## 1
Amino acid sequence: MIKEGSRTTCATICVAALAFAAFAAVTHGFAAVTSDGLRRADIAASPRALPEIELVDSAGQRLSLREYARSPKSVTFVALEYVQCRSVCLTSTAGQSWLQAEIRARGLEDRARLLTLSFDPLNDTPQVLARHAKRLGAEGKLWRFATVADSRELPRLLEFFGIVVIPDGLGGYSHNAALFLIGEDGRLSQTYDIDRPDIALAEYLQRNSSR
């Protein structure tokens, strides 16, 4: 006859095992425990084709996100932010600036480029983006700034990249952030912590060391 204590122990072990298995499933085999981590695992496992969204850049030129990012010779590092941000966007901007300097120093201008997308199209007009790019010393052919040409496309852009933007009541936004890598095939293939552009560049160089 099984004692009550043993029965309780067995039940506890079963519950723990089920919880362990469930946690492993929802975290993709423990690859991630946060929503950003899950996004990273999902994208790495299944690169995403870019949506057909029309953008307008700091020069007032229209461009297709899908067509711009598809290049047989270069990858694109993408960050989403807004010009007046004084929080995580400063880290994002610093990372993009660092990447620009490293790309130029390593002679990678034909193999890598940068795209900063604003999710505040009402305030971040082409003129505002142009002044922002100038302040940062952005080289136009290497580092491009743009936003959606039609604000109705903004939700689709944010959903694709997994960026959540919430008005803070003070004219700004609370939002998450990441550094994204668009491969030469025009697909979103990797995502990195916004403060680790060094890892993003190092992994890109490692994958392409034979070229």
## 2
Amino acid sequence: MADSAKVSSTYAIDRFRAALICYVEKARTTIDDVLDDVKKTNYWLEGDQTRHWKLEIRRRTVKFEVAQQQLFTARLSGYKEDTLLEQMAVNRTKRSLMEAEEKLKTIRRWIRDFDTLVMPVAKKMNMLDSVLTGRMPKAIVHLDRILKALEAYTEVRNSLPSMPTPSAQPEAPEPEVT
């Protein structure tokens, strides 16, 4: 092994350190955005969408019941043409009600599956975030120390006088003749 190293530049380490800092900041921002979107989506499903489709079911149920009442009234009046239009209205409102009920079932299925499908990935994102907040700053500090040590080494190396390289065995002094 060599007793010394030849360090001519710390540029690559410095660039890597700067790129690592940028990566950590961008990755943390992205992870925060993703986790916020996960929370918003869960709230949207459990809150807004559930409320919306429950209200739609109530509204469409009322329309369906009104259409049924109009069909009943038309049948009592005895006009066949009126009952045909009223039957079509009943069928249309029934399909609309069934669609709203199906949407609510779908929302409930998404809510049920949300925890099993999305939360494991969100937990991995949290783990990555903890690495980015815990280990990466330590790595950046370590790179700082490496840079300082290498810069100190190059300063000491540059301040030393240039040593001749040993080419061969030093010559032995000639014996004195008396």
